[in-house]
C-alpha cells in the first residue's frame, strides 16, 4: 500500500512534465467561478477565525467566527467543509474551540515553492546549447541536488490560444515559469535568462512533504464537520481535490439524510470490481 502511495505521488508530480496535458481555456481560475455559478452558491469572502460546535438538537451546529473586509461576525452552520490545509506551515489561522479534532498535529508540513514568471530570453547556453535555435526543450526538470537552485524551467502558453498560435521559439522572447525552493537572486536570474522585460514572484506553500509511512488524516473531524485537504498527502492536484470534494459532498449528504447504508458500504469494493 505504501509503495502504491509513493507511486501515485510520483506520478502526480511528474504529470506536469507530459506533453498531452489538458488546460482550461481562459485559465484555471474559471474552474472556481464556473463551479460557484453552477452550484448557485452564495460566496461570502471572509477569513474564518474559529469554529465551535453548539449543541441544541441531535447533531451539533457550528458557529463560525469570520472577518470580512468590513467587520468580524459569526454565523451558525449545519454542515462545514474545511477546504484548506490545516498544517501549521500553511497558517490558515482557523482555531477549533469547544472540541478537539482527531489529530494532534497533521503530518507533512508544506514545501515552500517559489514561482517566478519571467518574460525574456532563455539563456540556452546555461543548458549546453550556445545556439538557441538548436535548443529542443519546452521544459527542463531537475532532481534535488545542493548545487541546483531551481526545480524546473518551462515555457508557458497563454491561457487563451488563438487559431494559428505557435509556441515561442527559444531564440524569441517568451514567458517562462521557474519553480525554485528559494526566491531567485539576480545572479541566478541572469544565469537562466540572457535578458528579460519583467519578473513576477509568488511564494506558495505548495504541497506536503511526502513520506511513505504517513497515513491520510481523517475526513470527518466531528459530526458534520469535514476536512478536504488530507487528500493532498496522497497527491496534490486539482483533480485530487475534486475527488475529495465529491466524496465529502456524498458523505455529508448521506450522513445528513441518515442513509447509513450508503456510508462505508461493506461490499462496495467487490461491487466496483465486478462492475468494471
Ligand atoms: C505553484 C503551483 C502550481 C500548481 N500547478 C498545478 C497544476 O498545474 N495542475 C493541478 O492540478 N494542480 C496544480 N497545483 C496544485 C493545486 O493548486 C492544488 O491541488 C489545489 O489548489 C488545491 O485546491 P484546494 O481548493 O483544496 O486548496 P487551495 O487552492 O489551497 O485553496 C484553499 C483556499 O482556502 C483559503 N483559506 C485559507 N485559510 C482560510 C481561512 N482561515 N478562512 C477562509 N479561507 C481560507 C485560501 O486563501 C485558499 O483560497 C499547483 C500548486 C502550486 C502551488
TrEMBL record:
Pfam family, one: Prenylcys_lyase
Superkingdom of the source species: Eukaryota
A molecular function GO annotation: prenylcysteine oxidase activity
The protein, known as: Prenylcysteine oxidase-like
Names of required cofactors: FAD
Keywords for this protein: FAD, Flavoprotein, Glycoprotein, Oxidoreductase
GO biological process, one term: prenylated protein catabolic process
Signal peptide: none
Positions of the Prenylcysteine lyase domain: 8-265
Translocase in keyword set: no
Keyword Oxidoreductase in annotation: yes
Amino acid at each position: 500500500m505504501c509503495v502504491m502511495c509513493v507511486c501515485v505521488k510520483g506520478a502526480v508530480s511528474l504529470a506536469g512534465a507530459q506533453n498531452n496535458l489538458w488546460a482550461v481555456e481562459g485559465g484555471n481560475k474559471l474552474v472556481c467561478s464556473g463551479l460557484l455559478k453552477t452550484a448557485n452558491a452564495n460566496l461570502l469572502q471572509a477569513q474564518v477565525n474559529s469554529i465551535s460546535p453548539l449543541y441544541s438538537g441531535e447533531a451539533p451546529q457550528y458557529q463560525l467566527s469570520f472577518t470580512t473586509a468590513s467587520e468580524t461576525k459569526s454565523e451558525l452552520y449545519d454542515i462545514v467543509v474545511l477546504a484548506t490545509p490545516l498544517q501549521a506551515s500553511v497558517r490558515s489561522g482557523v482555531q477549533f474551540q469547544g472540541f478537539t479534532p482527531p489529530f494532534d498535529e497533521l503530518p507533512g508540513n508544506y514545501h515552500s515553492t517559489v514561482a517566478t514568471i519571467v518574460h525574456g530570453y532563455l539563456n540556452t547556453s546555461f543548458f549546453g546549447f550556445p545556439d538557441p535555435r538548436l535548443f529542443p526543450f519546452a521544459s527542463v526538470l531537475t532532481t534535488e541536488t545542493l548545487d541546483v537552485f531551481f526545480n524546473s524551467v518551462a515555457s508557458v502558453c497563454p491561457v487563451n490560444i488563438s487559431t494559428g498560435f505557435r509556441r515561442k521559439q527559444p531564440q524569441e522572447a517568451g514567458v517562462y515559469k521557474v519553480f525554485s525552493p528559494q526566491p531567485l537572486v539576480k545572479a541566478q536570474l541572469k544565469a537562466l535568462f540572457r535578458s528579460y522585460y519583467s519578473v513576477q514572484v509568488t511564494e506558495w506553500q505548495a504541497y506536503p512533504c511526502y513520506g511513505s509511512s504517513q497515513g491520510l488524516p481523517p475526513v470527518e473531524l466531528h459530526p458534520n464537520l469535514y476536512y478536504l485537504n488530507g487528500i493532498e498527502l496522497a497527491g496534490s492536484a486539482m483533480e485530487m481535490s475534486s475527488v475529495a470534494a465529491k466524496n465529502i459532498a456524498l458523505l455529508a449528504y448521506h450522513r445528513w439524510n441518515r442513509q447509513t447504508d450508503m456510508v462505508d458500504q461493506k461490499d462496495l469494493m467487490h461491487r466496483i470490481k465486478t462492475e468494471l
